[in-house]
Design a protein that fits this description.
LAMTOR3; 119 residues; Distant relative of homeotic protein bithoraxoid; Roadblock/LAMTOR2_dom; five-stranded antiparallel sheet
Length: 119
């Protein structure tokens, strides 16, 4: 099984564990290139690139304020919630409904990140 297939299998498992609250999940490199995704109706390249841009800005905030490096982030938008979680040298990005069970999604993102680190 190829590495991309293994990643997609893990992303699929994540989606099944969080129910229908997550509309897209993208595994991306820190430079903004997508590695694997399940993102019907959303452009994975755009999600990955813009999230990398946001992470870069948040990194600068941490440096300027001397509060450390950003580990993960959650951005609440009018119609969606964007979550980004580190997974070794990659990031898992999830796009969820605003009324989603964020506790469950964060729990499953942690678990997914650990599984991905072992691949």
């Amino acid at each position: 099984m190829s590495l991309e297939s293994r990643y997609k299998e893990e992303l699929s498992t994540f989606l099944s564990r969080v129910g229908g609250d997550v509309q897209a999940v993208v595994l991306a490199r820190r430079d903004g290139l997508p590695v694997a995704h399940i993102s019907p109706g959303m452009d994975a390249k755009t999600v990955a690139a813009l999230t990398a841009l946001a992470l870069g800005s948040l990194k600068r905030v941490g440096e300027e304020l001397k509060i450390g490096s950003v580990r993960n982030f959650i951005a609440y938008y009018e119609n969606r919630v964007l979550l980004a979680w580190p997974a070794k040298d990659l990031y898992v990005i999830a796009v969820a409904s605003p009324d989603a069970n964020l506790g469950l999604i964060m729990l499953e993102l942690e678990r997914l990140a650990k599984r991905l680190a072992g691949i």
